[in-house]
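Fold it.
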Amino acid sequence: MQIIDQALMPKTKIPVIIIGASSIVKDAQLPAYKKGGFEVFGILNRTRSKAEELAEEFEIPRVFNNLKEAIAAAPEKVIYDIAIMPQQYIDILNELPDESIVLIQKPMGENLEEAKLILQTCKEKKHIAAINFQLRHAPFIIAARELIKGGLIGEIYDFEVRLTTFTPWGIFPIIALNKRLEILYHSIHYMDLIRSFLGNPNTVVSKTFGHPLKSYSSTRTTTVFDYGENTRAVINTNHDHHFGAKNQESFIKIEGTKGAIKIKMGLLLDYPLGAADKFEYCLLEENKEPKWVEYKIEGSWFPEAFTNIMAGLMRFAEGSDVTLPTRVEDVIHTMEVVESAYLSNEIDGQLLKA
């Protein structure tokens, strides 16, 4: 069986100006844009020396001192790639020219109120704006979506994401200090992903936990989505499994009435080194024993998903695609799920006594 696992590239590649020079820009975005053949017109960062280092490493021709300077030099059609902390999004979105094309790093604000302001600002400025939820665009997710769209696994009744790994949060020093760590900066990927397959849940139940020997606000979370009596969707994340690689887990499993898909996300194993991905599917056949088939997927979450989400934004901007999956108008619902999870963490839970 031939499975589509790659995104379509745009007919016209729009130049990109990157705002920020963080590790995600260096490790994912710039390698992804190079892989996709996208032109990085210029880069800017509050600390100019960091932008200069990346400009030298990735042969970016221009380093700007500030956003005003970048806007003045920008081509007529350009994508502004905002890759900084969420507290600065509103100011930047307001400073950009009306009707700009914008890719904004997730999350869409620190909370739902900020997300609403971002949405309102983008509407008022008439920006074409997407949030960088790149997991939706990972090759193994594209492949899974193709199988599901084709009806091959039937009706989805179980969607599980499980992570049992050791994440060295110290390599993200600013993010690690956040009072909303695990859900807002990690589980949010899977919340957005589940929504992209199953739609908005009826309700959410969630509990997030810290670690007795660590100062991080939260490093383990369980979240359950309510999609009715027959459909289970659950996220279990544990970033504290520092007991070696043997029993680490990192997978997405989707079960349907006709078959199932299991995806091993190798990136999160032995992070940041990572391991190989694995894509398997099982299609039920009458009077035959279930058989799992491994399919070789080209590319992974890093950097291919970052290539694909930028390609999708370019295709939408040029008119090749009529939909923009991670547009701010859609991602506001992911932020609703995130906020609901935090509210659930605070107020849910009862212990009945006889």
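Residues 16-135+304-324 form a domain with the Rossmann fold fold (CATH 3.40.50.720).
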